[in-house]
Amino acid sequence: MTWVFDHAWMTGVFGDKAVAAHLSAEVQLAHMLRVEAAHSRSLGNERAARAIEAAQICPEDLTEGTAVDGLPVPELVRCLKAQISPELHGDIHRGLTSQDVMDTAFVLSLKDILPIFRQRLSALQEDLAQLAQAHGDAALMGRTRMQAALPITVADRIATWRMPLARHLERLDELSTRVLSVQCGGPVGLGSDGAALAAQLGLAAPDKSWHAMRDGFGELASWLSLVSGSLGKIGMDISLMTQQGVDEMRLRGGGASSAMPHKQNPILAEVLVTLSRYNAAQLGGMHQALIHEQERSGAAWALEWMILPAMLHSTARGLGVAQELLAQVEKIGA
What we know:
Largest sheet: 2 strands, antiparallel
Oligomer: single chain
Helix content: 55-70%
Radius of gyration: 24 Å
Number of strands: 4
Order of helices and strands: HHHHHHHEEHHHEHHE
Strand content: 5-15%
Shape: elongated
Strand order of the largest sheet: 1-2
């Protein structure tokens, strides 16, 4: 994960504890073990499944093996077999590949994260509705290309902030059906459809494994960037509206300057713009990760690990910041 999200003090600006928890090494390891146990159970070996669930493995146990193998699953399987009776080894990881385990584990995290986005988007919609109710009739100068144009109302501007959020919620429903699916393709993606595994994990079973078809994650990345872009528009507008001399909005709080005590910087509004631009910059990388050679790519797949978690974190933080920012509004309009 990009360092600003979990750095000792930068996390105060960019960190989101709720999403960070679901992306942690501990949670990812727990999900991988859950996948392995569910798969053994789907093979009819309850003893192996229970042995996997009882295994004592910590993230640090996988560090050296991951450095050699390029991913953690081979070492995970070695650790499991070291703790489990040899008579059960035949139904541990049988028919799976590392990508099946890691992709499905990540989807399990998404299953917990996407409802957070839904809740925050809905809450932000309500916050904007309340802001419009309280201040919507106030006059505001409409501006085009940052020049005074014609009078509008506060409600007019808030509508442009609020309406995209409803569309983002609709898009979230649509993409969730495509993203929250199990991966169970085996070595070259020709394994079972994973229906039994999917049923145990509460995920959808795809028509074919998506080892080399990453459009679902590409769509998710696009959605994250769209949400961040809408939040960045709110942040940019508020930054301009709070400018001294414009004074179209007054906020409680704000950031202090070490050199100019009279300043009250619109920090949260600026954070929304920063996070929006960050996700927009990452989107190209995620679309590069769509290019998998033949039946599986190591390079393109690893690129997802670097980018998509950070985009999830950025979007979650942006939604939280937007709510904090709206709560600071004391006055808007004339």
